[in-house]
Amino acid sequence: MNDSREKPVRSAAIMLDDGMASAINRNQMIRRTYENPPMDELMGIYAAWADDYDSDLIDGHGYKAPEDAVSSFVELGLAKNVRILDVGCGTGIVGLLLRAAGFTQIDGGDLSAEMRAVADGHNVYNQLFQLDMTADYKIAFEDAYDAVICVGVFGFGPPHVQHLHHIMGAAKPGAPVMVTVNGSGWNVRGWDASFGPHLQKHGITCVRNEPIRHMTKDGIGARLIELRRS
Ligand SMILES: C[S@@+](CC[C@H](N)C(=O)[O-])C[C@H]1O[C@@H](n2cnc3c(N)ncnc32)[C@H](O)[C@@H]1O
Questions:
Q1: Which residue's CA lies nearest to atom 3 of ligand 1?
Q2: I need a labelling partner for 122 at 20 to 30 A (CA). Which of 86, 115, 183, 191 fits?
Q3: Looking at residue 164, what DSSP letter applies?
Q4: For residue 188, is it within any domain?
């Protein structure tokens, strides 16, 4: 039996916590992203949102997960020329922060062409490419990255916890994979119950699981998890 059958995801009538209600009141784009929409609808949302996404999230919601995740990434002490993949790179907020921290070899992957187009305008990514996080990333073993970072994508889904193991194929064995998970999504989607078994099933080790800031104006935090493939 696969993970998705073990852990069905509710697509409607989710219970709102206070942070989610606050976020939804501020921004109607966010509502559907919290309701497990089909992938084509989710991509339609990001296509329409791409140009306003940065100002909506940073100014409107106090989006701080990129800053906190990149700050922890910098503390890993990796060489500045390591090859990094920013998964679900969106408009490039994380790439900009990594470049400002001195990293020079950053690629970005995202399913949305419109979000990638905004990221491309920053000139911080060596390559930007289409990637679907709900399936095998199709990155050859010899092309795997020295480090992977993914901010603001997981929590409500898609992609869901049962897709998390796909990210490990993008990293060299033992390389750090840093992922943020929306704290409301962690609770609503039941990550407490599904996260550990998923890692165990796929032979993934979690070396960090700590709270960070996420949408500070909504009172929503996030988990910063750091994973290693064996
Ligand atoms: C909330 S944004 C986060 C973007 C960026 N990392 C940030 O912190 O601003 C979520 C991003 O995940 C992308 N995304 C959603 N589902 C995806 C999937 N299945 N495969 C790849 N990217 C996906 C969306 O296109 C969007 O750019």
A1: 152
A2: 183
A3: G
A4: yes
